[in-house]
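#structure-requests
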Amino acid sequence: DYNLGFVASLSHTVPMVAPGNVQVHTVNSTLAKVHWDPIPLKTVRGHLQGYRIYYWKVQSLSKRRRRHVEKKILTFSGNKTHGMLPGLEPYSSYKLNVRVVNGKGEGPASPDRLFKTPEGVPSSPSFLKITNPTLDSLTLEWGPPTHPNGVLIAYTLKFQPINSTHELGPLVEIRIPANETSLILSHLNYSTRYKFYFYAQTSVGSGSQITEEAVTIMDEAMASRQVDIATQGWFIGLMCAVALLILILLIVCFIRRNKGGKYPVKEKEDAHADPEIQPMKEDDGTFGEYSDAEDHKPLKKGSRTPSDRTVKKEDSDDSLVDYGEGVNGQFNEDGSFIGQYSGKKEKEPAEGNESSEAPSPVNAMNSFV
């Protein structure tokens, strides 16, 4: 009996009635104002501390999906008749009720009031991905905003080229229907970097934008393969090997060409040189001495040297001085030797092998005597 009496006495200490005539007016998509009528002071049954508002989100009107109910509480002290509810989500439905508070606790809740927040601007698209670069086109894919905050009416795409010095070119704007999730952007410049700005729109306005950058490819080969094979190790190694082989072949051909154009010609001239045309040593003003031993030595085939040819020529010139008469000196008919000699060096064509050379004038004189 004591406990029942205590509970009964306690129940008589909290406010007796709930505020009446509760009204809600939305200020914008995230703010609402609540009005109520004050209760008679005699129904407070104690000291009036204020009014308390309970409110919670029922669902998002854009997603049509119920969420876990999470009630929020705001207390307004004193004898107020209105209060503001901030931090609401756009384009959503809410419920609320109002209660009176005294020193012992809360009174009964007013009937729940349902209200809706208007549309707001959307959040940024959930993602923007740029794929399939070609010579003059790019493919854009995107996801809708996580919080559309209203009915999406369109997407807006803006893009502009970026040059090598990071300067931005002219801005192009494209409006895309709200039900689209991809776009092939064509008629672009090859090997050019572009910057993209992408955002969604509701009837209220444009939402937060998302930005990305992408580059069109350089040539048709890359367009067909969609990969840069120059970055692969095997390709680089193969190209280096081919370049090295070509360089080696060029060096070998150059060496063979120089050798073939210089040395065989010189060896051929040395092998066919005639001793009769070797120059006389006129600088020292002396002539070689006569030697019977050398005159009667048989000539060895292929053993002539430049020094032998020089000595032989000097001997020939000495004989001309001793036995010839003048420049065109010659023997008469009974001398059985006729020949003309000249101070000029003349070359007679060689007939037969090298050992069939004409005898020197000295040898001819010896045979005559």
